[in-house]
Amino acid sequence: MENSIEYNGGENFDLREMLLRGRNLRLNEKVGLFESFIDDLNKQNVMLNMRCITTAADREVTILDRNGKKKNMLMFGSNNYLGLASHPYVREKAEEAIRKYGAGIGGPPLLNGYTILHRQLEERLAALKGAEDALIFSSGYGANVGLVSGLTNPNDVIIYDAFSHASFCDGIKMSEVKSFRFPHNNLNLLKLRLDQAANQTGSDVYVGVEGVYSMDGDTAPLDKIVPLCKSKGAILLVDDAHGTGVMGSRGRGTAEHYRVEGKIDITMGTFSKTFAATGAFVAASKPVVDYLRFFARSYMFSASLPPVSIAVVLAGLDVLESEPELINRLNDNTKYAAERLNSLGFNLNPQTPILPLRVPIGMDIRKAALKFHEKGIFVNSIEYPAVPVSQQRFRISIMATHTKEDINKLIEVIDEIWTSFKSSEKCAAKEFCYEAA
Ligand SMILES: Cc1ncc(COP(=O)(O)O)c(C=O)c1O
Predict the structure, then answer these.
(1) Is 214 designated active site?
(2) Is the beta carbon of 265 within 6 A of some atom in ligand 1?
(3) Out of 242, 257, 373, 402, which one is annotated catalytic?
(4) Is 165 marked active-site?
């Protein structure tokens, strides 16, 4: 395809620049410009997206590197927190489901895409969240979009945390609801917004927060937010994608952790994190669930998850009940990793297995990511424009199945990368080189 737009390349060209410039370009110009950008990353050898994994999602994986050679890597970038993806019982249940139900279902839930397994899972999830009922979506993205756009009216107000996931924000964009963002976890401003919204009559006020915020691994203080919403008559929506399965001593989620189980009006959770599958659910009162089945368009107009995916989540719930020690192991590993990092000068106080390592100003995140890769550590880098430049980070995800040796290796590589940066000219303020979120 002909590309008439010049790509100047360099460190200053990023996805945001691409997005801004692309808005005024025709398709062939836009995709040509993007192609040059990707080619440039490939030439610099720093293109680490879409690494091809050839093994099960475990604590160690094998990937194909750029030359097609196999490379073993320790996985510190997966949401498979409890290692359920390759748990023997989960595998066995998946095989059993395939044998009994075949590979797929071929339709949406309201028509032919609803099996006894789907119903069993809805009931188990409702019980897990202390709700009356639940419904299952094919993805977390679809659940948030369908939930927000399906429930709200144009006169309603939704007040939501500034760190909310893109799917929640897209749900707001798709609906006509009036929306207000409050600064992350700032309950004073949430209260102010709630007071302002209280003057509206004939409409509902919703509050949207996440149990665990995926970029920083911190939590919403639900013990304070629940009574605040109750006192203002607001309906609380909690996206507990990262909390379900790991938070609370039984893994029931962030509400269990904050001892407000059964008090959340509407909880959303995904199967793509702890359950290491795909799909999501919304748990709420029965009338809300019945309503969403017909008015959440991403539910009504999308094919159901195949029974094998449902069986995987059911098996994961069994494991949560039969092996509560997995959560303890995850917490111990997280504590150990944080202590080791803090002994190097970081300042982490993790509430969850997500450890954000802020990249100091001056450190080239792509080059540092390459170093991790070369040393056999698989981590995800969160770059601008996903976060502001000053908040670029590596997001380390700890798993219950990691060994102490795995974590020691991770720490050794982090120390090496940060020490080499610290001694470089680019590290202007040496004392900030270890600063973490
Ligand atoms: C907080 C949160 N909500 C929703 C989603 C979307 O879930 P899924 O990947 O299952 O579509 C994610 C996934 O990254 C998430 O982190």
Answers:
(1) yes
(2) no
(3) 242
(4) no
Task: Measure 141 CA to ligand 1 centroid, in angstroms.
Answer: 6
Whether residue 385 is preceded by a cis peptide bond, meaning omega within 30 degrees of 0, is yes
Estimate to the nearest angstrom the gap between the alpha carbon of 246 and the chain centroid. 13
Annotated catalytic residue 87: no
Which residues are 266's β-sheet partners?
Answer: 237
Per-residue pLDDT tens digits for 115-153: 999 999 999 999 999 999 999 999 999 999 999 999 999
- Structural domains in the chain plus CATH codes: 1-44 (no CATH), 52-75+325-432 (3.90.1150.10), 85-322 (3.40.640.10)
List C-alpha distances in Å: 320 to 87, 126, 208, 273, 277.
12, 15, 27, 14, 15
Rg of the chain, C-alpha, whole Å: 23
Contact 215, 171 (CB under 8 A): no
Q: Which residues pair with 52 in a beta bridge?
A: 64
* Spatial distance between the Cα atoms of 231 and 407, rounded to a whole number of angstroms: 45
165: Cβ below 6 Å to ligand 1? Answer: yes
Protein residue closest via CA to atom 7 of ligand 1: 140
Residues of the chain with pLDDT under 70: 1-13, 425-437
- Ligand 1 closest atom vs CA 167: 4
pTM of the predicted structure, to 2 decimals: 0.92
Q: Of the residues 78, 164, 175, 214, which is catalytic? A: 214
pLDDT for 346: 93
Nearest to 144 by CA among 243, 279, 235, 265: 279
Question: What pLDDT shows up at residue 83?
Answer: 97
Identify the burial level of 1 via C-beta atoms within 10 angstroms of its C-beta, where 0-12 means exposed, 13-18 middle and 19 or more buried: exposed
Helix axes 27-43 and 15-22, enclosed angle (nearest 10): 160
Rounded distance from Cα 269 to ligand 1 centre (Å): 8
User: Is ligand 1 within 6 A of the CB of residue 239?
Assistant: yes
Catalytic residue chosen out of the listed positions 165, 273, 373, 402: 273
* Strand (E) or helix (H) holding 157: strand 157-161
Report the distance separating Cα 189 and Cα 228, nearest Å: 12
